[in-house]
Amino acid sequence: MTRTGGSSEAPEGPLIRGIGLGSATALNMIDMIGVGPFITIPLIIAAMGGPQAMLGWVAGAILVICDGLVWAELGASMPGSGGSYRYLREIYNPAGFGKFVAFLFIWQLSFSAPLSIASGCVGLAQYAVYLFPSLASASPYSLLRVSVPYLQSSPVEITFSPTTGIAAGACIVAALLLYRQITVIARMAKFLWFGVLVTIAWILFAGMTHFNAAQAFSFPPGAFSFSFNFLQGLGAGMLVAVYDYWGYYNICFIGGEVKEPSRTIPRAILLSILLVAVVYITMNISILGVVPWQEILGTMNQAGHGYLLSVFMERVYGSGAGVLITVLIIWTAFASVFSLLLGYSRVPYAAAVNGEYFSQFARVHPRYRFPHISLLALAGVAVIFCAFKLSDIIAALVVIRILIQFIAQTVGLIVLRTRHPERPRPFRMWLYPLPAFFALCGFFYILLMRKNFFVEIRYAILLIILGTVIYLLRARRLHHWPFGEALEQTRVQG
Questions:
Q1: pTM for this structure?
Q2: What single string gives the DSSP state of each residue in 88-120?
Q3: How do residues 213-236 score in pLDDT, each as one tens digit?
Q4: If phi over 0 gives left and psi between -120 and 50 gives alpha, with beta otherwise, what is residue 9?
Q5: How far is it, in rounded angstroms, from Cα 382 to Cα 135?
């Protein structure tokens, strides 16, 4: 996810607007189609208890379309680089409260970005078990058990196993490969993305040519019975689906380099969502037509659920194909980790350059000229998160981002419309304010309509509290808002 941060006042002159609609849509899709759909199919099937889990994908697509319209309007009206960092500062006053909101965005990114990176690493390690079955028999041992009063009923446990070592090793290798000039990295990224395209194309072809409709749509009794359990399952399924769809807004972070941004950004967002939704739903239905959903549920507590696509391809073409698709998916997972670590490392750096995050993150490697402190910090935290369960990583990631970024941005659009109706809006949200309202409802539904939903919310709230305290201490030392800077700028403007 290649992202470039920047303040709303930063000049865009040095940036070349060379990204057209085709490239913008492709960049979004590259970010969206990572390792997610290969590792989360068992999770979404387990959430809803059968092939009705496809409702989660459809509902998730509708939610991200509504949220995509939020990004489309903001991206078209503020077509510079920076994405949420830029929008939140501008919406909530860059000289005042906007500084605090932008800081919280970067603060949560310092945790949610490593969670996202770690999810790819853990997925890679799960597929490695197919190639080396002995990894599954090794018993994990606890490295750390921490009880946090009022936050969780059971202790937080960090465990280590051979697969944990593989996941952490993948993150370290990606960081080492990124520890060089950006021109070399660009060539690496193209090479890795080719493997992703081959993997997706092969899976779709295999599924469509060996599809068993009766098996794919063998719904369990009461699959669509409207009940509280059904609603909880749908919420858990949508959480997983939203995790897999994320990335449709990638183009907003490099908006300063997009041709005709008022037209290109909205179209790229909506096109990428629709195309990826078709790919995901088709791929999932195809897999269920080869591997029965009952079998997927039966292996949820076994190693096999972690490499479902390997089993799928083995059923279709034999063990050799299973090995080959496993290698390709490991390739895809590593490409995802590589891309995420590259892009995310630039965001805290950009904020630090503007004086709105810790100055250490603004340091650039003296020879290769890249933000090496930011890169190493995010990679280090991601290595620690590799010791957590994949389902916990995804839940924490989605909840933190929804609470601190997505809700603030959606509400911010309504605030901007209300306070500044005269502001030029080259693209206006269709049927405003309904999509923004539906996006907020969908986000709150995901937050609250899940079993044990309050665990991740508590940690997100703790993260907000810590971020607020750190911001206030730092703002007091630097005389930022609310300790004088906004008032001083107001006097100067007056």
A1: 0.86
A2: HHHHT-TTTHHHHHHHHHHHHHHHHHHHHHHHH
A3: 999 899 999 888 889 999 999 999
A4: alpha
A5: 21
